[in-house]
């Protein structure tokens, strides 16, 4: 699998403590995308399916898995293999998948059915910057929350999406050497403390330039 980022304990992309998996490569390239570094199909790093499964299964105290990208359905066969391994051992884990495909489009993808049986909740659709209005757990209002199981419907309740007012958006910061990885959907108008730059979900190089 080509991996953009792994974070074994994320708390802002679904209820509980979640294993965050961002897959590399995306054809949608939405303006204002949260993770443009994930677009390149040859970017990221190659990690075997069994190794990713091992990392998920050893992650302490996780309650679920959130999968994003990039466009994760470009690697749907590898993803299906991964989830089969993990959920056969940990059927208590729930799964959330972000995709740029609309639900009606992804149903037409070859080989999609075996993957969907392992997914509880899908957030579908491309990001549209002009429709970013602050709803938690999605970037823009055209994106839909689509439960695929009873667990998926329960996730909507746990995420506060079935009542008003909705909870606020949140982000988490993860430091990896000289890079900062920002996970989550930033609140509208969110600015990084240091430079006034709008926060993406992705990597920022913190290495100082010059002397």
**CA gyration radius, whole angstroms:** 16 Å
Task: Give the SSE string.
Answer: EEEHEHEHHEEHEEE
End-to-end distance, in Å? 39 Å
What is the overall pLDDT average? 90
Shape: globular
Helix content, binned percent: 10-25%
Low-pLDDT residue spans:
195-211
List the total number of helices: 5
Largest sheet composition: 7 strands, mixed
- Structural class call reads alpha/beta
Strand content: 15-25%
Strand line-up of the largest beta sheet: 3-1-2-4-5-6-7
Tally the beta strands.
10
Write a structural description.
The chain is an alpha/beta fold and 211 residues long. The chain has helices spanning 49-58, 76-89, 103-106, 113-116, 150-158; strands at 2-10, 18-23, 45-46, 64-69, 94-98, 121-124, 144-147, 171-176, 179-184, 203-205. The termini are far apart.
Write the layout of secondary structure elements.
Layout: E1 2-10, E2 18-23, E3 45-46, H1 49-58, E4 64-69, H2 76-89, E5 94-98, H3 103-106, H4 113-116, E6 121-124, E7 144-147, H5 150-158, E8 171-176, E9 179-184, E10 203-205
Helix pairs in contact: 1-2
In short:
The chain is 19% helix and 24% strand.
Spell out the key features of this protein.
single chain, 211 residues, alpha/beta, seven-stranded mixed β-sheet, three-stranded antiparallel β-sheet
């Amino acid at each position: 699998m080509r991996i953009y980022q792994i974070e074994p304990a994320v708390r802002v992309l679904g209820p509980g403590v979640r294993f965050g998996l961002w897959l590399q490569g995306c054809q949608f390239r939405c303006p204002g995308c949260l993770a443009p570094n994930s677009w390149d199909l040859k970017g990221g790093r190659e990690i075997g399916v069994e190794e990713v499964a091992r990392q998920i299964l050893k992650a302490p105290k996780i309650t679920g898995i959130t999968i994003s990208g990039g466009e994760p359905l470009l690697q749907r066969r590898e993803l299906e293999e991964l989830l089969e391994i993990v959920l056969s051992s940990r059927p208590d884990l729930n799964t959330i998948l972000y995709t740029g495909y609309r639900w009606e489009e992804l149903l037409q993808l070859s080989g999609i059915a075996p993957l969907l049986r392992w997914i509880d909740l899908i957030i579908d659709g491309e990001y549209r910057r002009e429709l970013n209005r602050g709803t938690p757990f999605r970037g823009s209002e055209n994106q839909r929350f689509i439960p695929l199981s009873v667990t998926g419907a329960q996730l909507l309740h746990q995420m506060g999406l079935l009542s008003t007012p909705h909870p606020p958006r949140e982000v988490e910061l993860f430091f990896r050497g000289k890079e900062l990885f920002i996970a989550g959907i930033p609140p509208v108008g969110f600015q990084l403390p240091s430079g006034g730059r709008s926060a993406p979900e992705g990597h920022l190089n913190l290495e100082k330039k010059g002397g």
